[in-house]
């Protein structure tokens, strides 16, 4: 079984996915525009928008597209949760996503161990970033 997060954007999917590509050092496996799909899905207003994108990084796939018809309604009912073993890498991801966004909870030590922070990025996507508690060597 596999669980993927699929993000819908209102015309700025390519910009958002390139932003995430840089932060996570990923690569596009798929980047299809509406004009590359069946003609009934393409119109002059959406032909260069993203019909489907798959971004891969470190065993993760992030899927996304620009909404075909209805405008996107940004909600508060989901987050993308990223867990990273390396604290420095987790902080870099958090800071990258926070650039231009809104930090809800700073990336800092938490009572359950490790470090954690949450934010809404500049595209309205909600993120949780975690780093496992570093065990000290005796």
Give structural notes.
This protein has 138 residues and is of the alpha/beta class. It has two domains: 5-66, Signal recognition particle alu RNA binding heterodimer, srp9/1 (2-Layer Sandwich); 80-131, Signal recognition particle alu RNA binding heterodimer, srp9/1 (2-Layer Sandwich), CATH 3.30.720. The protein contains two helices and eight strands. It has helices at 13-24, 87-98, and strands at 5-9, 27-33, 50-57, 60-66, 80-84, 102-109, 115-120, 126-131. β6 and β7 form a beta hairpin. It is elongated, with a radius of gyration of 17 Å.
Find the structural class using helix and strand composition. Answer: alpha/beta
Classified by CATH, the class of the largest domain is Alpha Beta
Query: Treating each run of at least 4 consecutive H or I residues as one helix, how many helices?
Result: 2
- Helix fraction, binned, reads 10-25%
**How many strands in all?**
8
Q: Whole-number radius of gyration?
A: 17 Å
Number of domains: 2
CATH topology of the largest domain: Signal recognition particle alu RNA binding heterodimer, srp9/1
The portion of residues forming beta strands comes to: 35-45%
Helices and strands, in order, run as EHEEEEHEEE
Name the strands of the widest sheet in spatial order: 1-4-3-2
- Report the oligomer: single chain
Low-confidence stretches: none
Main sheet characteristics: 4 strands, mixed
| Mean pLDDT across every amino acid position | 90
User: Which geometry do the CA atoms define?
Assistant: elongated
Distance between the termini: 39 Å
Architecture (CATH level 2) name of the largest domain:
2-Layer Sandwich
């Amino acid at each position: 079984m596999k669980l993927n997060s699929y993000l819908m954007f209102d015309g700025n999917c390519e910009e958002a996915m390139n932003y995430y590509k840089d932060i996570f050092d990923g690569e596009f496996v798929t980047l299809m525009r509406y004009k590359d799909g069946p003609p009934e899905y393409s119109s002059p207003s959406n032909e260069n928008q993203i019909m489907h994108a798959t971004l891969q990084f470190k065993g993760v796939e992030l899927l996304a597209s620009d909404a075909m018809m209805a405008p996107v309604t940004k909600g508060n009912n989901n987050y993308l949760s990223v867990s990273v073993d390396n604290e420095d890498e987790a902080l870099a991801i958090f800071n990258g996503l926070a650039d231009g966004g809104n930090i809800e909870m700073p990336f800092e030590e938490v009572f359950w161990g490790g470090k954690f922070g949450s934010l809404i990025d500049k595209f309205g996507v909600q993120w949780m970033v975690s780093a496992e508690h570093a065990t000290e060597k005796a």
